[in-house]
Design goal:
Layout (H helix, E strand, L loop, with lengths): L2 E7 L3 H12 L3 E8 L6 H14 L7 E3 L13 H4 L21 H10 L6 E5 L4 H9 L3 H4 E7 L14 H5 L1 H9 L4 E4 L1 H4 L6 H8 L4 H21 L9 H8 L4 E5 L2 E3 L10 E3 L11 E7 L1 H18 L2
């Protein structure tokens, strides 16, 4: 039995790798994709999602545009990392499918409510606006979702501020809602994703796979590596978002521990911080887990295998 996942994302270079991994792994079935304003504006990341889906032969996956801005705050984007298009340096094919006419939040609700209870895992790799809105608009999804796996936050590390990660900091109110609903939540944060570095060895291994999908991925990594080194000083950038997908494929690749997590909404210096309480033992009703350790070689082997499979199936 494959695991059915709905991707909620803001492509985004690392979101693109997450899409590739989800599409190319036989353990997962991507049943929907919703976009959210984050790395770039909603229009740009939605265009990117359609182009990537075309390149990766995901044309049968419904894709819907979701929320353009956070619940309360002004939008913020990350052109210093992802460029003005959201996928700087990458030439995408013209979309071979049309956008689903539903709002992204409605796509999430419809997918969960028409599937068996526990049948859908939500994988969020952007701000959590769509997921929070879905839980508020149709509260019954909370007891029907198998798990929410999100790339965001951090136990001890921030990137947009010293203690806050971009996705959570962009819409901390939405993150607060998602963490406080009683569904299972796994936070794949910066402490974990900073272990997934796109080193020269990793790029050489992926680049050895022949074909046009590989060429797209190589362009993607060239741009991402250059931007990340310039903006953040990483010679080999962390590839955040596919770590959340890897956890869905094989949880043994991403070690997690049960830890209560809350989101700081009002701190002058700590706004958007995910506060993970490592005091032991966790309460009996703890429904949140945080990722701690990545099996790096197995993670990149999954990405390589997915690239081979997607390339073989490319039109």
């Amino acid at each position: 039995m494959t695991k059915k996942v709905l991707l909620d994302c803001d492509p985004g270079h690392d979101d693109a790798v997450a899409m590739l991994l989800a599409q190319g792994n036989p353990e997962l079935e991507v049943v929907g994709l919703s976009t959210v304003g984050g790395n770039q504006t909603l229009a740009k990341v939605t265009r990117n999602a359609l182009g990537l889906a075309t390149a990766f032969s995901m044309t049968d996956v419904p894709i819907a545009a979701g929320c353009a801005r956070p619940l309360v705050r002004q939008p913020q984007v990350a052109p210093e990392i992802h460029g003005e298009s959201g996928l700087g340096g990458v030439h995408l094919p013209l979309p071979a499918m049309t956008l689903d006419r539903r709002h992204g939040v409605k796509l999430i609700i419809d997918t969960v409510m028409t599937s068996d209870p526990g049948g859908i895992t939500l994988v969020a790799t952007g701000p959590l606006t769509n997921i929070a809105m879905a839980a508020r608009l149709e509260p019954r999804i909370v007891e029907r979702v198998a798990e929410v796996v999100l790339m965001g936050g951090g136990q001890h590390t921030g990137n947009i501020t010293p203690v806050a990660e971009f996705n959570v900091h962009t819409d901390p109110e939405a993150a607060h809602i998602v963490f406080h609903e009683p569904w299972p939540v796994t936070m794949v944060g910066l402490d974990l994703t900073h272990q997934a570095l796109a080193t020269d060895e990793v790029i050489a291994d992926l680049g050895a796979v022949p074909g046009p999908v590989t060429a797209l991925i190589m362009d993607l990594f060239d741009a991402f590596r250059a931007a990340y080194e310039h903006a953040r000083g990483f010679p080999a950038p962390p590839v955040h978002d596919p770590c959340a997908v890897a956890y869905c494929i094989d949880p043994s690749i991403v070690e997690t521990v049960p830890v209560p997590v809350d989101v700081e909404l009002g701190g002058h210096l700590t706004e958007g911080m995910t506060v993970a309480d490592f005091r032991t033992p966790p309460p009996a009703d703890c429904h949140t887990r945080v990722a701690t350790t990545l099996d790096v070689s197995r993670f990149w082997a999954l990405v390589h295998d997915a690239l081979v499979r997607v390339q073989a199936g490319a039109r």
